Each structure stands twice: as structure tokens, then as C-alpha cells.
Amino acid sequence: MPTISMFFRIIIRMYFAPSEQQPPHFHVYYAEHKATVDIRTCELTQGYLPKKQTKLVLAWAELHQEELMANWKLVMNGEEPFKIKPLQ
Fold first, then answer.
1. Dihedral sign, CA of 69, 64, 35, 39?
2. Which class for 46: exposed (0-12), middle (13-18), buried (19 or more C-beta within 10 A)?
3. DSSP bridge pairs for 33
4. Which of 27, 57, 62, 72 is the least buried, fewest Cβ under 10 Å from its Cβ?
5. pLDDT tens-digit profile of 20-72?
């Protein structure tokens, strides 16, 4: 699963999953925590992140929503997603 961004020890990844028919989403990893974020709504849909990291990830997702959707289309076609600038 390719890493598309990393910031403040938070890792953002997307699966190559052409057969997956879920809403567009990405996976977040921070320490022992894992979560899934819906790209369209910029909301956590599964898992848990500490409050501070949740705010950072959702702010980043809103800033990069168009790029995330473009990456979603790539991975749904079995292609590798591109890197997205980290939150600074």
C-alpha cells in the first residue's frame, strides 16, 4: 500500500484495490492508531486517532481533497497514486 504523504509522524496511504467499491477513502496510521477517512466528506469513518491528529488529518484532507480524489481514481484503475504535499 503506497504512502502518499507523511507529516507529524502521521502516515497517509491508499490501497491498490480496483475491486473495492467503498466510498473514496484513505488510511491513516499514527503510532498504534489506525483510521479510515472518507475523501468526499473529510470525516473519520473507521478506527480512531487522538484528537490532535484527527484535526491535523482532516484539515490536510480538506486542503488536498481534489488531489485525493485524483489518487482514488488512479488506485481504482490499479495505478500508483502520486505523492501529496504534507501539512506544514
1. negative
2. exposed
3. 30
4. 62
5. 668 999 999 999 999 999 999 999 999 999 999 999 999 999 999 999 999 99
DSSP string, 34-88: EEEEETTTTEEEEE---HHHHHHHHHHHHHTHHHHHHHHHHHHTTPPPPP-PPP-
Locate cell 486542503: which residue?
63
43 φ, ψ (degrees, to nearest 5): -130, 145
* Amino acid code (one letter) for 23: P
| Distances, alpha carbon 69 to alpha carbons 8, 13, 37, in Å | 23, 13, 12
Answer positive or negative: Cα dihedral of 87, 65, 24, 72.
negative
